[in-house]
Fold this sequence. Notes:
CATH architecture: Alpha-Beta Complex
Mean pLDDT: 95
Number of strands: 9
Shape: globular
Order of helices and strands: EHEEHEEHEHEEE
Structural class: alpha+beta
Strand content: 35-45%
Helix content: 25-40%
Amino acid sequence: xxxxxxxxxxxxxxxxxxxxxxxxxxxxxxxxxxxxxxxxxxxxxxxxxxxxxxxxxxxxxxxxxxxxxxxxxxxxxxxxxxxxxxxxxxxxxxxxxxxxxxxxxxxxxxxxxxxxxxxxxxxxxxxxxxxxxxxxxxxxxxxxxxxxxxxxxxxxxxxxxxxxxxxxxxxxxxxxxxxxxxxx
Length: 184
């Protein structure tokens, strides 16, 4: 069994900008498990644990899901936390340009990929920056996030999606590309 998800990658510029943001967030003293720079991405569909024998089927279904879709621009804009300010669990960066394209890909993946878990929640394109364990000074933390609510964190051209394998280790997850599917 392998732990698998489908993702859209970020540009190096976007990753660097988010790294700078993480340093500023660290200065608030909040206890956060940050996503490693190389692991930052937009999760399109989390399949969970699937059989290695099913990877080829997932790839074929992903090809169908993006058939006829063209490359598009993707900009990261703003930062916030959810589920909300009273109970903070995730720090995330939002998607501005390209959000509608990501929603279309997600809808197509939901229709075409038959293997793995199904998440029926409304898809909100975002990049998870970190998972919050504890925030002692909530006012300081939220004030910092508020400073970056309208900040752009870079642009990229999305040329495809990737099926990725995630191996959980004590140091954190290790991601490996299973395959890349290009937009036409």
